[in-house]
Amino acid sequence: MTEPAQLISDMGRKARSAFSILTGVSDAQKSAALTAAARQLRAHQDSILAANQRDMASARDRDLTDAMLDRLMIDADRLEAIAAAVEHVAVLPDPVGQVIDRTERPNGLVMERVRVPLGVIGIIYESRPNVTADAAALALRSGNAVILRGGSEAIQSNGAIHAAMVAGVVEAGLPADAIQLVQTTDRAAVGAMLKAAGLIDIIIPRGGKSLVKRVQDEARVPVLAHLDGICHSYIGKDADPDKALAIAVNAKMRRTGICGAMETLLIDQDYPAPGALVRALLESGCEVRGDDSILELDERIVPAEASDWDTEYLAPVLSVAMVNGVDEALDHIADHGSHHTDVIVTEDSAMAEKFILRADSAIVMHNTSSQFADGGEFGLGAEIGISTGRLHARGPVALEGLTTYKWVVRGTGQVRA
């Protein structure tokens, strides 16, 4: 077997060659390749679902959590959603070649900033086999070559999805090496990707805190990532009780294992119906861990520990605190949040605008559920992840986030004095 460092080096060179070809590929060709890939995903349904069943059986033997099993599982409906997402990316506007801005200098030179692909993208992810299709589709549509390294728990599923995607790409006449999958579970392959400067242009990790921290600590190439999804919802004193209840339950319980799930609920001390909020969450199957004021609302509430305010549960567990106004809510979020997604529920528009202005998060929401923190819900098609950094891309990263720009200067013979 090829050593991981040599394997990644070989894959990087192949990806660089494929990227060179992609720079000359038309928008119509990229779109046709993804349409064919979606068709192949559906055609390979039996093999993909069988591969996923093998992964699920292995995961149960390893006692993976229910949240991890939910992320790993593919059924016919989820596979159809994966194929539909690839089709949606196929018809999105191509960002490559878009003119961001244009100016004409006094000497007649015309300056343009034009979107171009990033190059070769390395994506390291866990659990979710749909990322294999989403990442491949977004990378190809934006003119990038991609090297995918999924988690060992999804090795069979990822391989089957990758095979279907490549079949579609090749059917459309594009290079198979545009979408490559690292098919070894050796963790040294991750280290090799992180050190592949000159072959890989950017690394995007998508997974748990330990994975993302390792990538950020060890990478010798740029990283686009978020470490935690500690999302807050603040129920203001003027919140509509019906909206507040529906939003809180949905934000926590619709899917507890996604990064946009609410992990902390902040309730204004002057909100008139805190007990109803907490009871609704408890009755939906959520464990509530509260501060002293919240503990008084229901005997089923568990005392919160200091660590709870800094925990991404990814499970039906929620920390709840009572706060004195929007400023205290914002201070709590600043101290304990992860700059992912934070929500205010209020009918006071001035309070909402204050929260939106001051909350230092990649996504800030008013009167809606944090579960909408998803590229598809933003109209971006599939997403490659949520970025909580401040450079390059922020929030859901989709096609535009996988491009950079170059300056194009057009003259008519000007020379500089």
Structure, explained:
With about 425 residues, the protein is an alpha/beta fold. It folds into 2 domains: about 5-225, 3-Layer(aba) Sandwich (Aldehyde Dehydrogenase, Chain A, domain 1); about 230-370, Aldehyde Dehydrogenase, Chain A, domain 2 (3-Layer(aba) Sandwich). The chain is about 40% helix and about 20% strand. It contains 14 helices and 16 strands. The protein has a 7-stranded parallel sheet with strand order 10-9-11-8-7-12-13, with helices on both faces. A 4-stranded parallel sheet has the order 5-4-3-6, sandwiched between helices. Strands 1-2-16 form a 3-stranded antiparallel sheet, with no helix packed on it. Strand 7 (about 230-235), helix 10 and strand 8 form a beta-alpha-beta unit.
CATH domain class of the largest domain: Alpha Beta
Order of helices and strands: HHHHHEEEHEHEHEHEHEHEHEEHEHEEEE
Corresponding CATH superfamily of the largest domain = Aldehyde Dehydrogenase, Chain A, domain 1
Q: Identify the overall geometry.
A: globular
Low-confidence stretches: none
Proper CATH architecture of the largest domain: 3-Layer(aba) Sandwich
Summed over residues and divided by their number, the pLDDT gives a mean of: 95
What is the percent of helical residues? 40-55%
